Amino acid sequence: MRKNLILGLAVFLGVLMAAAVFYYNTFIDPTSSKSAELKSRQAHTFPSQQTLYQMGLYLDLPNRTLYGNNAMHLVNNSGQAMDELWLTAYPNAFTYEDDSPASPSAYYDGFNPGGMEFDYFKINGRTVAYETQGIAVRIPLQECIEPGQPFNLEVKYRTRIPRLAYRFGSKDGVFMLSYAYPMLNVLDASGWHKSYNSKYGDPFCLASANYLVRLNLPDGYNFVSPGVVTDALAEDNGRQSFLIKAENIRDFSLVVMYDYKEIGQQVEATNVKCYFPAGVAGPGNGILQQSYEMLSYYSDIFGSTYPFSDLKIVFVPMKGVNTSEHSGLIFLSDTMLDSFRQQEYSYFSLAHEISHQWWYGLVGNDQVKEPWLDEGLANWSSYKFLAATRGMKTPASGNSFDRMNLERELKDIKSAQDYSRLAYSGGEDFWFDLEKKVGGRKLDKILQRYVSDFSGSIASAEDVRTIIDQETGRDMSKFYQPWFQQ
Length: 486
Fold this sequence. Notes:
CATH topology of the largest domain: Immunoglobulin-like
CATH class of the largest domain: Mainly Beta
Distance between the termini: 56 Å
Mean pLDDT: 92
Number of helices: 10
Shape: globular
Structural class: alpha+beta
Largest sheet: 8 strands, mixed
């Protein structure tokens, strides 16, 4: 069995590498009116946006194990010699009960560990040593990779999927596979953006990349992922395989499920799809119309259309967390189905997750060091949508804001309430405070510039402040002072 499995994965990888010879050269960089300094900085951020993940994934249901091979042809575009590589292995956050970000109630059968084990890492065909530090993986290099030098990175691994109702886990025949593969971290002039275990938030800093994935599943199971299926094959051993192509995404997360229904609506260039368990009442077609309204609104005010041909929304068994955003894909807890049928608080949650397609999907940031940046913008965007379309009052209706210090990272967070106050409440208050200071039209221009300059790239709070100063034509340091205290 294991010998056949290894052989099958090797065949998948060979197919992927052959297909990638043509595919790798088909991607085009987004263009914008960026400064020469910013263009240079982004050109020297590793890995580049043209990076292609070639992956073979084989899901073993009885053992709840995902077998994987990754192969990447890379170029050291960082402008500096690299003596190490850093990656993120998110499943390792679930190895020990005390470290798990999932709530105890999500472990429906008691604590059950997950994790990622590596068979090897290879650079240019040679096996290399590696170290794991929680979810962080370090590969020390015996020989530096010089600026401009191309190299190949391969990894073979096994991901153990816990019995867990969470964005990474499985329940009732549904496999939530968020960040279930080794992901390259970002290197720029400030150094490596490293990940670490955190009970709160999203411990990632991910570059946009392209993916070519061969996924192998048992017959009868389906899946939802970013991208499009370009090939499907029914095997004679009770399994099926799919070739999936996805461009310019931050992560390749997916859901594998059995007996789900799909509803969809094509509006202009976007196909909105929603998936839910066949045995329950669905959310109704209202979720499709709501999603389209949100996409249209955000496209207008952010000055950039939704970047993918599909938006996929899937209801999954999650407990302790209601939503999870991914590129072109949104996880919603199946406990929210009733609220969507009744059109209650679901509006805000959906608006928040869809806005993440801009504030995460298009414009990335270090979610470890600056979690407020994407989450605060997503909350602000949600309030603006609901105010414009539903007459909802926003925090801007008040007279003052809690001007807290936003210069805190995940390791400084002590509780879920602390995280919510920083990332959501504090983040949204910054943008509402700025809107009161400069006006709505000027803020729209600031955000449009933000998207234009950093689409497909990584932005920081410093970048935000620079854009605000340039677009307003004045020094806003007094405004920033209470928000950013080193």
